[in-house]
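Predicting holo structure, adenosine-5'-diphosphate bound.
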Amino acid sequence: MEDELSRTVDGLPGLVWTAFPDGRAEFVNRRWCEYTGLAAHEASGEGWQMAFHPDDRPALLESWRTIVASGEPSEAEARIRRFDGAYRWFLCRASPILDAVGKVVKWCGINTEIEDRKRAEDALRAHEQRFRLIVDCLPTRVVLFTPEGDVFHANRHTLEYAGATFEELNAAWTSWIHPDDRQAVVARFHASISSGEPYDAESRHRRADGVYRWFHVQGFPLRDNLGRILLWYFLQTDIDDRKQADEHLRKSAALMAKVEELSLSGSFCWRPASGSITWSEQLYRIFGIEPGTPITREVVAARYHPGDLHLLSEMIKRAQDGMDVEFEYRLLLPDGSVKYLHAQAHATRDPQGRLDYIGAVKDMTEHRQSDDALLALRAELAHLSRVNSLGALTASIAHEINQPLAGIMTNASTGLRMLSAEPPNVEGALETVRRTIRDGHRASEVIVRLRALFQKKAVTTTSVDLVEAAHEVIDLLRSEIRNRRIVLQLKTADDLPPVTGDRVQLQQVVLNLLLNALEAMNGVDDRPRRLLVKIERDDCDGVALTVTDSGVGFDPQHVGNLFDAFYTTKKEGMGIGLCVSRRIIESHGGRLWASSNAGYGATFSLSVPYRTGSTIAADLPSAMGQARCTDAARNVRNP
Ligand code: ADP
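Done. Tokens:
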């Protein structure tokens, strides 16, 4: 029986041993001896210690002493040297054998090899360490959570950012989230943990110094082969700078939109190569198109006024050639309204050399309408000014018409007489009829000229002989001049070039100046009433006309007011003649000014250029005409 037991113990697949209650070895089995290469007697007492790795020995002995002292079963791990000198890990289990009163009478134990498990554990530990090292060194915040949602690991960056230990973070990680974001974050987090769906959201997290910064947080579950979640890893990317830039961009876009709204303008980007077009919201509004609608050439063309569609093709053609473009065109909106737009686009090239256009479109409709209203008002004023002068011409006109009428009457009665004579003087009667016709023509010519001058007529631009035009006006005033005992002197240079402009408007100015001169000499009795009209070249490519009178003159202090609207010193005056006249002359690219004479009276002078005629001809607008010469040019021309 003893033998059998001994054989069994020897055959057990472990290193079996017994020890005395004080811890000294009593027995080791055959396998123990075979494995360690030590004889049984070598192992007895304290000798067994020789089989253990010197590094493990102090800890092993310490724990063996504790076990012996406690009298409780226990275990320890240590490396045992094999007979060939190789150390392998063993789990050494010890259990006390007690007597009837519970006193330890012996210790028995078995050491089982755990080398493979130990290696696997080491490998896992090394793996984990490497993993932690990588996670810790990642330049971003990483927090690992258990499948249940507890913090498992927070990398160095996370702890440094939060200014907290792992334990503090573990205890209350949500308290680092901005109070306004917390509720949503917690709800989303739990939704992900319970559903296994990845987490993806932005939230603000508190830094060690108390500042909150925006993070993009992404959480992914790590699953085993069976699809069970082993771990959650959460990446937190700092997007605060981007957020601020976004905010900045949003603010400047809002500002830009406001500016566009206030200035009634919109903007666009256009890449001709790809055809991609981006419009600002305001531009959509100007075109009356729902914001966000994809912009194509067809969409744009559908809004163009049919009469201006050719401008769109022209603009596209110019743009494809890489030129800057600037156009004025009209839109015809579905409700039938017309908008006037001014578009300007500047070409740039991207690094690949592709063309990019950045442009602005301004809605000129209101501007245009007020311009039109202004033009209409000025035309009305100009007409009023002419009609106003009609009164002053009445006597002259009556005389001009009376003369031929009197002639007609005389001729008609002479003719009657000649026809009723016996025999009738047919030859003589024919002559009187011819004279009657001639006088009739004369009267109607006067009327035609008057009508031309006082009719409301659209402005026409032609080549005007200023001498001839001035003569016509003077002719209308001749009898008036005579009646007022005024000595008229007319000096005109030969071979004056024609000026380009509106004949009636220019005549109106001459008429205004002459009537003013006549009126200025009304009360003059102590000196000759002289009127000098001179037409000659001036020294800057123009034709100058001056009207000099010997009238009352004006206070040089008021020379600046003479051309103001409604400035008058006359009882019945309206004060619009000179104001309208100056506008007319300026619209011809010329200037009109006044000066006091050395002796008595005043001189009013106008000058109209003849060499820039083509510019004026092209630019002279409809109705009353608006100054289109550049400010620079006008400054040069007007004193
Ligand atoms: P109105 O003749 O109705 O007063 P105008 O605009 O033609 O309006 O003239 C404005 C003012 O300029 C006149 O009231 C007058 O004071 C002054 N003025 C115009 N022409 C002369 C002139 N030849 N001599 C003196 N003053 C003049």
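The first strand starts at residue 15 and ends at 19.
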